[in-house]
Design a protein that fits this description.
- This protein is α/β, with parallel strands linked by helices.
- Helix content is 41%, strand content 10%.
Amino acid sequence: MHYLLYNLGREALVTKHKYPKEILSLPYDPKFAVRGLHYDVQKGLLMKIDSFHNIQPGTVYRGCTPVSKAETLALYGGTHVPVDNMNSFHGTNHRMHQLMDLFALPEMTLLSNVIQHFIERNIPYDPEYVFYDVRGAVQGVHSSGELHRNIMESPDIYIEKEQEVAELLQWLAAAGKKLFLITNSGFPFVDKGMAYMLGPDWCDLFDVIVTKARKPKFFQPTRPFRVYDKQQGTQAWDRVSQLIKGKIYQEGNISELVSMTNWSGAKVLYFGDHVYSDLADPTLKLGWRTGAIIPELESEIETVNSLQFKKSLSWMLALQGLIETMQIHEDAESQQILDEWLRERDTLRVLTKTVFNRQFGSVFRTYHNPTYFSRRLSRFADIYTSSIVNLLKYSLTYTFYPRRTALPHEIKF
């Protein structure tokens, strides 16, 4: 699906925004970007930022070209990004744009490829104009329905059919759990995809189905629910006073959902794949339990468990301990050894970064700190998993307990 979105956005740039036709030959690289990166709209730089708002050296790119640490320090006066330039509550900011959903990856790759094309051909450009043009082209593919039409025509190409999804939903429904679906997509698109995955009677599995929800606006008391007639493709005009199983609803808001269903607080476990649009409001305002779907977890865990990574990480941590212990010695010989250890540690830092992604490293960590993405994920999600079907491995009475982690002053040296 990433290839489809990239290709449609690339075509829109040329046909609607009149970009050079040579851009049509720029290929999509699925291994270029990772989720959670920030893009400096004014400077035209893509980068990874940690949970303390520090730029990770070696992860700053102009187009597809790495920016040196020296230039990064000169541009930002250091590595720290002021809080005013960071993301607001829902991850939006005119200065820094964060890649929080999976669909942002082809958008950022297209943007990087276009800028690289301009640089290599000495075409003058303003990075802010290019950003909004690319974003407009990709978003237009969504809003025009072009992306949905392509997927509906060939669901077998773009939708992964997992039998376990049907098994999970049937298991939960049979146990008396109330299931609900809240999606920003229209019903025809949702119906096509769900019928392909779950069969024509998929609606029977859910107690409440809400389409065109407009998240995150759904979590504000704005528009009321409307009944959607799936046979006629029309909306009713009368006010909805109760949510009835078997009916399809559009728009609406979370306050009315809670009021009509009495689904509130920690009784609700709500899953989504966008940390801001899906999970922020439900956990902070409603006290719902939330789960994040992070497909990248599978490859990250595989890398973490590889022998190369384990050996490199163990030796790097050992070196860090030696450096901390021995830095009190100030004689020339000790300083020479410390310098050697620091160089070796820096080499290992690069190695443990590039095994995840050559340009930007792990989705979840910088060299040692959690990424900004990890910070937001841990704030808004109670649990996270690569796929919702992983719940099949646990019983209905299983409790996920938070793990106690040692604070710096609790560590015994």
